[in-house]
Specification:
- By secondary structure, the chain is an alpha/beta fold.
- The chain contains 22 helices and 8 strands.
- The strands form 2 sheets. Strands 2-1-3-4 form a 4-stranded parallel sheet, sandwiched between helices. Strands 6-5-7-8 form a 4-stranded parallel sheet.
Length: 440
């Protein structure tokens, strides 16, 4: 028996098509086995609220062992997990190929899927995870003005808290009627120049957030690609990537969304495009979760290999000698937060590397969970927990008295600014900062 593992973690496919996957008795047996291993280790206690919740349940029962925890209380641990993946990728010594085979996030995913199958999810959770539908409705001209006003008005926010349990103090992103997909002006006219590590042309997968909430992020990506004379297109047709439905445990919805996205993206991959998404969770969905859910789908695997984070692509272009570095504007002091779903892509700190190409720019990197975590930190029952998790990040981001606060995850950036309170710093997405640095 090995005590821990020094080998790189590996991931087993998610066996969600097997009826046993949804067997609650079998699930509880695996939860008890893994909870007992976690109880004996406790390395992950500082990562999120799942582990303190588990350890309190163990320590507060007469046996002080997992066997003394009521099975009904197992769900309390599940509900605190937002599938950030950090325990698997950065802390746990017992992940595969270790014989104990602990994959805590995917066990939590299985539990969420069982819960969803039982119908134990709220209207609010289904609503919040329907990002594409919400975006289409909320971004309609005139409607968008009403929605944004409602989200800013204390009286209606109190009502939303009481009825929908969306916390009244959570700052919500605004919607934009000038959607990215309908206003983008890509340019495919440049000659294709493949590099040793990068395809020479790009397809942009917009994402729900960029399309409906902050289209400027997508426009800045286009301006950077144009400046570097990289031919690019916007993906012809797209659905939500499926990450919000995955976090809900609605795996059938994930499959439906996959069936809409993958044929379009696989065609682009076959044509030699690098596919870029400006939201780390969406990139991770195509790089990791869908390939593990559909390991035998050749098109899913093809898209996985073609998918890039924008800064992963740009830094590799630089290493290929194909990126312009004619930055004309220093950025000063930048407090940069690396989101969890970017960290677990195992590609290094590519955004930081890009910032460091800009003269007279000092980057402070904060590599810790912000606590917002998709829709989790919006919910009334988790808002205070999300602010507590984020407190060390808020403090670290504010410490250098930065000119800019930036995160690849736009909602994490907003959450951090809310937690920092009064500050002279300007919040900007990393792509926007690169566009500013280029003087575009």
């Amino acid at each position: 028996m090995r005590e821990g593992s020094l080998e790189a973690p590996t991931r087993h496919p998610i066996d969600w098509k097997n009826p046993k996957f949804f067997d609650e008795e079998d699930l509880f047996g695996e939860l008890e086995r893994v909870y007992d291993i976690c109880h004996g280790c406790r390395r992950c206690v500082s990562l999120c609220n799942s582990f303190p919740t588990l350890f309190d349940l163990v320590d507060d029962n007469p046996t002080m062992e997992v066997e003394g925890v009521a099975k009904a209380d197992y769900w309390k641990v599940v509900d605190q997990c937002f599938l950030c993946d950090l325990c698997y990728m950065t802390k746990c010594p017992y992940v595969p190929p270790h014989e104990w085979n602990v994959d805590f996030p995917h066990l939590m995913l299985r539990a969420k899927a069982v819960k969803f199958k039982k119908g134990e999810v709220t209207f609010r959770d289904k609503l919040l995870s329907s990002t594409d539908t919400l975006g289409k409705l909320a971004s309609i001209p005139v409607v968008v003005e009403i929605v944004n006003k409602v989200n800013r008005t204390p009286a209606t926010r109190k009502l939303m808290d009481d009825v929908l349990h969306i916390h009244k103090d959570r700052q919500l992103p605004e919607y934009d009627s000038a959607k990215f997909r309908s206003t983008a002006k890509p340019d495919a006219s440049f000659p294709v120049k493949p590099g040793k590590q990068t395809p020479g042309k790009v397809a942009i997968f917009s994402t729900c957030y960029v399309n409906y909430n902050e289209p400027g992020i997508g426009h800045d990506l286009i301006r950077i690609l144009k400046h570097n004379e990289i031919p690019h297109v916007v993906v012809e047709k797209e659905n939500c990537c499926g990450m919000p439905k995955l976090e809900l445990g609605d795996l059938d919805a994930v499959e439906r969304l996959k069936n809409g996205n993958i044929p379009v993206l696989a065609k682009l991959a076959r044509e030699g495009y690098a596919i870029l998404t400006a939201v780390p969770s969406c990139t991770l969905m195509f790089k990791q979760e869908l390939p593990l859910m559909f390991p035998d789908d050749a098109d899913v695997q093809l898209v996985k290999d073609a998918m890039f984070d924008p800064f992963e692509y740009l830094v590799l272009r630089h290493k290929d000698g194909l990126l312009k570095t004619d930055f004309s504007k220093p950025l000063g002091k930048v407090s940069y937060h690396i989101p969890c779903h970017l960290r677990v892509q195992n590609m290094g700190q590519k955004t930081r590397e890009m910032f460091e190409l800009v003269p007279d720019t000092k980057v402070t990197v904060v590599e810790r969970c912000s606590g917002h975590d998709g829709t989790w930190g919006v919910k009334s029952e988790y808002f205070e927990g999300s602010m507590k998790i984020g407190r060390p990040v808020f403090k670290a981001m504010a410490a250098p008295a930065p000119d800019y606060v930036s995160s690849d995850c736009a909602i994490a950036g907003r959450h951090i600014m809310q937690g920092m309170g009064k500050t002279s710093a300007d919040k900007q997405h990393p792509l926007t900062l690169v566009r500013i640095a280029y003087g575009l």
